[in-house]
Amino acid sequence: MYQPDSLEKKFYQSRADQFAKQVTRYLDGNLDADVFQQLRLRNGLYVERYSPMIRVAIPYGQLNSEQLRALADIADRYDRGYGHFTTRQNIQFNWVTIEDSPGLLRDLARVGMHAIQTSGSCVRNVTTDHLAGISPDEMVDPRPWCELIRQWSTLHPEFYWLPRKFKIAISGAIEDRAAVRFHDIGIELYRGPANQTLARILVGGGMGRTPVVGKVLKESQPARNLLAWLQAIIHVYNKYGRRDNKYKARIKILVNDRGIDCFRKEVESVYQKYSDLQDEWDEKRFIDIENSFARPELDDYAVPDNIIPVNSDHFLKWRQINTESHRDPDRVIIQLPLKSKGAAPGDMDSENMRDLADIADCYSGGEIRVTHRQNLVLPWVHKKHLHAIWHRLNEIRLATPNLGMLTDSIACPGLDYCSLANASTIPVIKELGDAVDDLDRVHDIGKISLKMSGCMNACGHHHAADIGILGVDKKGKEWYQVTLGGDAGREACIGERVGPAISREQIVDAILTILDTYLDIREPGESFGECFRRTGLDPYQENLYADHKKSRSHTDSVAA
After folding, report:
1. Under 8 Å between Cβ of 478 and 504
2. Are 183 and 136 in contact, with CB atoms under 8 Å apart?
3. Which residues pair with residue 472 across a beta bridge?
4. DSSP characters for 112-161?
């Protein structure tokens, strides 16, 4: 995996030192609060409902074991002993102080990490497929392109003060695991007839207050021209994007207002001006970046003597559900849902971070990855170690066989932390977990995505879920809108709203009614999405609004 060199680490340290001076000036009353707000945001520091929060970049979702241990130390030193992995392949620390934030950034810099541009109206952390470089269905490894864009966009003088935040995602596989159609710019890499790397470029996607599926700007472009196209697109957005209304400031609004054909013409005209980026393509530099993502040196550890393989039902179910095929036939990909009972989705305590870092050193070349589903991945596990690693994961409560299932739900921090939230998310997810506590029942429901956001900013990606839950405020009370049938993959679509909002007291029962309905009407082998496309909203509306007002016992819920 890519490792920053000494010069890059020095840059992160100097950036932290610079921010420390800004914090001192602010606390001494010598720096205006509005000016400091923009400076702190571009260093990842938010002021949330109860405490400042720092969002740390994990570029394209890749961590090494040294970095994970450093995050554990930061959790203990600056937070309350845990961190929160997000749907943007970042990690957040929710209980820091403004005074301590420069120290946190300095500790990050020592291991080649930072919080630069994890907030603010600039190009944010570039995200990609968490199975990049290891998935059998991959056509092009997107990670070198992510790194190229990261280097290009960091502190870019033209694009550091955009109308609003800007997000880029890249995929290079047949299956879209990066949700590229829901980003400001989405890029699909593939191989052309002569084996050259080509790019399909989409623009204007996004969730939030106005969910939109991105539109194709250029169907087939040589990937070596990618930076020139990105520069042209963001230039047009920077010139014409609205700055008078933050709710209308994203590029999706500009694309929709002008129309994709008109927007494309604008970009193409600007692209010619940026052709020097194309002409100055540095092949050697890119090859050096590519080489940094070469397969790691993997020690062939022996199977521990004290681990006697036993094909228990738990182990077999875990292997079936939480592991995936690897492009190396001798290896396997292990998925680690961070959705233990009673915990907030994506939370991980410092002890588990250190344990997982040790496991990664032993079995996965010291590499860990962060997914869009608030989970982690061990990407380089040999098949002969499966039972040994399951045994260790089971000891630290990271072997629940529920990947992609109901209890592997996604949720933003909601009203418990976020100053923008209208409603709670974490308590609802916990109550739902209590209501569906039988793992056999979870497996009977099968693969299903439930995503929950506490406000219209859609950090929980609720628009692109089988079951999407959005928290809304009604006269100071928590209510929830429900959508069904969303999809973040290649067949990207926005979920359809079922009907009137549902109260906080009734939302868990409403979700259970939706699950009951699905189990009653599905055909053999039919997923929730397939079932919904066949039946539409009608059966869910009929049962939901007939039943959700009734008081139901959770112990009787989700009947087959």
Report:
1. yes
2. no
3. 479
4. T---TTSSSSSB---EE-TTTTT-TTBSS--HHHHHHHHHHHTT-SSSSS
Helix (H, G, I), strand (E, B) or coil at 381: strand
Please list, residue by residue across 24-60, b when 16 or more beta carbons sit within 10 angstroms of its beta carbon and e when fewer do.
eebeeeebeeeebeebbbbbbbbebeebbbbbbbbbb
Question: What is the rounded distance in angstroms from the CA atom of residue 322 to the CA atom of residue 313?
Answer: 14
Euclidean distance between CA atoms 221 and 212, whole angstroms: 23
Per-residue confidence band for 308, with pLDDT thresholds at 50, 70 and 90: low
CA–CA distance, 508 with 510 (Å, rounded to integer): 5
Q: What dihedral angle (degrees, nearest 10) is formed by the CA atoms of 180, 184, 190, 195? A: -160
Q: What is the pLDDT of residues 458-502, one digit of tens each?
A: 999 999 999 999 999 999 999 999 999 999 999 999 999 999 999
Instruction: Dump pLDDT digits (tens) for 179-195.
Output: 999 999 999 999 999 99
User: How many angstroms separate the CA atoms of 394 and 324, rounded?
Assistant: 18
From the CB of residue 520, how many other CB atoms can be counted at a distance below 10 Å? Answer: 11
Per-residue pLDDT for 557 more than 50? no
Q: How many CB atoms lie within 10 A of CB 516?
A: 19
